[in-house]
Automatic annotation (TrEMBL):
This is Chloride channel protein. It comes from Ooceraea biroi. PROSITE patterns: CBS. The chain crosses the membrane at residues 20-40, 70-88, 131-154, 166-189, 209-234, 255-277, 329-348, 418-435. Keywords: CBS domain, Chloride, Ion transport, Membrane, Repeat, Transmembrane, Transmembrane helix, Transport. It is found in: Membrane.
Amino acid sequence: MIVTDVDHCMVEGCLWLPYTMWLVLNIVPVLIGAVLVSYVEPVAAGSGIPQVKCYLNGVKIPRVVRIKTLAVKTIGVICTVVGGLAGGKEGPMIHSGAVVAAGISQGKSTTFKKDLNIFRYFREDHEKRDFVAGGAASGVSAAFGAPIGGVLFSIEEGTSFFNQSLTWRTFFASMITTFTLNVVLSAYHGHLGDLSYPGLLNLGKFESIPYQIYEIPLFMIMGTFGGLLGALWNHVNYKITCFRLRLVTRKWLKVIEALLVAMLSATMGSLMIYFVNDCKPLGNDPIKFPVQMYCAEGQYSAVASLWFQTPESSVRSLFHDSKGSHSDVTLTIFVVLYFFLAAATFGLSMSSGLFIPSLLIGSAWGRLIGSALSRICPDCEVLDPGKYALLGAAAQLGGVVRMTISLTAILIEATQGISFGLPVIIVLIMAKWVGDFFNEGIYDIHTQMAGIPLLPWEPPPLSNNIYASEIMSHPVVTLRTVENVGHIVELLKCVTFNGFPIVDPPSSDQGEINSYGRFRGLILRSQLIVLLKNKVFNEYEEFWEKPLSIKMFRDEYPRYPTIEQIAITDDEKTYTIDLRHFMNPSPYTLQHSATLPRAFRLFRALGLRHVPVLNDTHEVIGIITRKDVARFRIWKHQGRMGLDELLITNKI
């Protein structure tokens, strides 16, 4: 409709009309998406990959895998794509896959208060996290048609502990996802049973991508350039995000900001189409919606094709169009405009990803380099601009997200260019090395800005002289083996801790560091609440369910009631609970002389949240939580490094 009006108004002199229509068509869906995210479910904002990454790392982020989040995410990403924002649907699909996997694995819905009484065995954090890993991999598989890339993504970006059985289960889930999507898409295109639609993102197929050994230095240079641009993009987005955190705090301001970016997108596109005259002849296979603008009969505006196509179609065009299809001026201006537009879009209160915008920016400057090389050596048939567009896309995306192995597999599977695997991995490694010299990947930047206690793969290298007694929380709140019910109730109301050491009465005085009794075990806040709710008191022992089983705890998972929702009479507050029946008698512990790297590896590999610290006589003197370990973070910048102590949010 806009395309037809543009060509009509070029003759009639009413270009304000298609511009106004473009604004309206951008603003309306963006308004819907921004209102949903800002007012209904804020955790659905962005791509969702940082949240899924943190969840797989062992961090429980509130509402990240709820059905309401899935609904808002689905509608929101549709609004983002329809609204013409510089965002993609691939990241939200990964988040959506994680939510679906988390919901199916529980066999019940707390939102709809429906329990199917199946899959009770999986109602615990460890099992649920494994399903989320498979769901995230399936999301990658559905988006790109890349089941192997999906498995590698789960390994590289999130999961703390990956064993052999989880690997093949995740791969099987990814393959089933690809097959199911194939069947659905074949029916959608009217060719049911024709399984040639591997993923939602269609980047086209590279029949043959020849390259010579003398091109490898060129690939390394492209990777370096991609790392520089990626680091710059991350820095620009970081500054914009800092501005948002300071000033755009109210919900209505977040909606207004999204609308302003939508208007900016339409305005930038309109101005570029109007002022840049890049006419190309219509071929045998013209673009879907050619715009004539000032071009002669039989020609179309290549600038308009970049803006009026979907970003995915534009990437495909830059990959596969013949030489000379896009002028250098057009590509240069487009790269600059879309670079800053994408940086302003990522972080809005909208459900949107950055895979496609990064691929589009990279494919544009990559094709620009390919065109320059083909002009320098016109007889070198191997210097195909489409090939360099692919490498530019890989370099730009790698420079932004700093993924290597999984991104290589994703791009190879999405383009079916297995013979081009070596150049892609060279470009991605160079982009990561160069980008890491200046800043971290965009997901890590946003995770740190949110104050989430994410643990990286390795402990800080300058922390061997930091001991458990220095980072532990003390004085620690403990419970006795046989505890008074009233004391437990008041304790849970007064503190927000989620883990309590069980101790015998203190046996000695430890001087500067207080002792809290000989350590016997550990019990969680959720377990105490379930015990209080089910009246598991010593005085009621004859009325207990025989025998007591773990089913009592799994039925309440994952949304345990608060202590205020538990009705305890004054008489019951005088009763006692023998916690030895329900505590973990052999949790992981640390000696007070253990170093920070040892504590770090314990939390990272096992996904722990609490580790009691003991003295030489096995008495608990403190407790280390995930936040105590995560607040120590190494920083690297321009060849220098140091150890920082960060602030961790109290919302998680």
